[in-house]
User: What shape does this take?
Amino acid sequence: MIPAPLNKNFPAEPGVPDDASARLDLPAQPAAAAATGLGDSLTLNLKPRHIVTLVVALVFVLIKSYETLHAYFTGNPQVWAALLGSSAAAGLTALGALGVFFTRRLSVKAQDVMLGYGGGVMLAASVFSLIIPAMDAAQAIGYTRNASVFLAATGIMLGGLFVLALNHLIPHQHFLAMASDRHSAARTSRIWLFVMAVTIHNFPEGLAIGVGFGGEDFGKAVALATGIGIQDIPEGLVVALALRSLGYSPAKSAAAGILSGLVEPIGGVLGALATGVSATALPWALAGAGGAMLFVISHEVIPESHRQGHESQATLGLLAGFVTMMLLDVILG
Assistant: This one.
């Protein structure tokens, strides 16, 4: 028998390449050298004039973007006002969150009072600045009194269902659930779930501000933005302190509180755009924003403020917030 020839692709001794494999490996060094040379050539070719060209192009794009936005906001002043109002509210949320640098903790009773106060402001804003103006706007475009009430009621329900859908579609975590799992290894990821919950809470506020500025009563819109901004200060502080109590640094706690308010300008612009679709959309948008805020008050704010055994103090805070917003609506509206 003639023995079969050995396959040179599989050398007898491991680690010792045969001629074929050696020949296949030969181009490796030139390829690496070519890649290095290519990288060096790219680096060397980036000359000062190229950098200047890129900078000039970037400045040109920024200028054109500014001109486009300026032209748009000039033609749509209600969107610009909504952006300013909702951004101011987000700024006040950030201001409250920065308070975590000056105080390490706040008593649970004080937190409940502040939550109740914010709920009262939101409740009055829903009634005086959104729902009642929704019925007035409906009558202004030809609805009868009874039809305007039915429209507002339907809009309230749709707004509440919208926030309910957000609660189910977007994963989030409430603070008390986090606190019960304080020493869990998974708590690092829970901060984002908590921030998402607060973001869901803040979006209807920005939406309400935008819808308010999209309406015809500028005074009520200013009162609405002012009231929401006032209640955003303690809200931002409570969020930051809650995260601080879980062991996060002041910087991370403040950053999370600031992040939770950044959605308000987005909601503000969307709310103003919704009212600009047609005159018929205004009462629906006002009622829907009011329903969204009512859902947040009942589903989030009041239960959180009552869960630690300070129901009476939280309720007094709610009444104070309601009166504050009522006075703002009368004085500024």
